[in-house]
Amino acid sequence: MTVTGSVHSWDISTGVDGPGTRFVVFTSGCPLRCLYCQNPETWRMRDGHRTTVDELLTEITKYRRFIEVAGGGFTVSGGEPLLQPDFVAELLHRVRALGLHTALDTSGYLGARATDTLLADTDLVLLDIKSWDPTRYRRLTTVDLAPTLAFARRLSELDRPVWVRYVLVPGLTDDLDDIDGLASFVSTLHNVERLEVLPFHRLGTVKYTKLGIPFPLEHTPTPEPDLVRQVRERFARRGITTT
Ligand code: SF4
């Protein structure tokens, strides 16, 4: 039976969704509502297109040689891919069977839905840890932090490679004590290859305007270079490589 999922779109990207040039599938549907979300058009599963794994494989195969030469791979992103775990598991399995490097971009909130088999078919997890403080995390995302931390620990136990992502938002995720807490937690994991500090930007504002919904961080500035430097330094103190 062909597995079907709700997909918003797919694209080729370089340097933002894992190593090298990648074929990226954006799934539809996400249980979070992050204040800084740059992809609000992916929030609702019913807005996506019903797509089979076979259809996506046909597209991916067209780019396979190009991706291999560019030292890249395949990334499933969203939305939240783990909202459709069977579809994503089949997709990762089939793409990996082509010999391509596979990555899963996730908030980790639904990490319990990822089977060990799905994770074995995932060469890299891009794990967003959006805040260290549970109250701030809830205010930022509308959901609990604990499932993401549990997923991070499980990935460490399974020894699956992880890049942690941290979006730095002035006035929201720039508390240096929180960052020390996150750095301390990440330093206990054995599988984190790097931590990406991603400075907040407002490029997604136009999408909100198009959807007719207010962008909550419309007036939030991008972080000053000195703040970005200080945050990177806090992670470096714990021996964590940042990019
Ligand atoms: S988890 Fe990602 S897609 Fe979902 S609301 Fe947050 S930033 Fe947007």
From TrEMBL:
Molecular-function annotations in GO: 4 iron, 4 sulfur cluster binding; [formate-C-acetyltransferase]-activating enzyme activity; lyase activity; metal ion binding
Localization terms from the record: Cytoplasm
Cofactor: [4Fe-4S] cluster
Assigned GO CC terms: cytoplasm
SUPFAM superfamilies: Radical SAM enzymes (SSF102114)
UniProt keyword annotation of Lipid metabolism present: no
Name listed for the protein in its UniProt record: Pyruvate formate-lyase-activating enzyme
Keyword vocabulary terms for this entry: 4Fe-4S, Cytoplasm, Iron, Iron-sulfur, Lyase, Metal-binding, Oxidoreductase, Pyruvate, S-adenosyl-L-methionine
Domain spans labelled Radical SAM core: 16-238
